[in-house]
């Protein structure tokens, strides 16, 4: 059970080591597997993807809950699916 203030994560993917366009392709495939309202968490280490994935997900109609750098090399992005693909 997610604690108050914590987001329940329904699916996590680790795409560290992947570069564009594979980062976006893998993220899009992962969100397509979820139901509306579920949350995808992406762990990545490619700086361009840390910017492009949130923008793309917004364009697809989803909500970006978090996009933050968690250490010198990695980012975590959380996206809530809002529309069926």
Key structural traits:
about 80 residues, alpha+beta, Translation Initiation Factor IF3
CATH architecture: 2-Layer Sandwich
Would you tell me the overall average pLDDT? 94
**How much β-strand is present in the residues?**
25-35%
Number of helices: 2
Q: What gap, in angstroms, lies between the N and C termini?
A: 27 Å
Would you identify the regions where 5 or more consecutive residues have pLDDT less than 50?
Answer: none
Q: What sort of overall outline do the alpha carbons produce when their principal axes are compared?
A: globular
Radius of gyration computed on alpha carbons: 12 Å
Give the tally of structural domains. Answer: 1
């Amino acid at each position: 059970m997610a604690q108050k203030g914590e987001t329940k994560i329904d699916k996590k993917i680790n795409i560290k080591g992947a570069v564009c366009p594979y980062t976006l392709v893998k993220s899009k495939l992962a969100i397509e597997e979820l139901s509306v309202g579920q949350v995808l968490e992406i762990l990545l280490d490619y700086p361009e993807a840390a910017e492009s994935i949130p923008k793309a997900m917004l364009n697809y109609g989803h909500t970006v809950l978090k996009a933050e750098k968690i250490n010198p090399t990695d980012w975590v992005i959380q996206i809530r699916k809002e529309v069926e693909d």
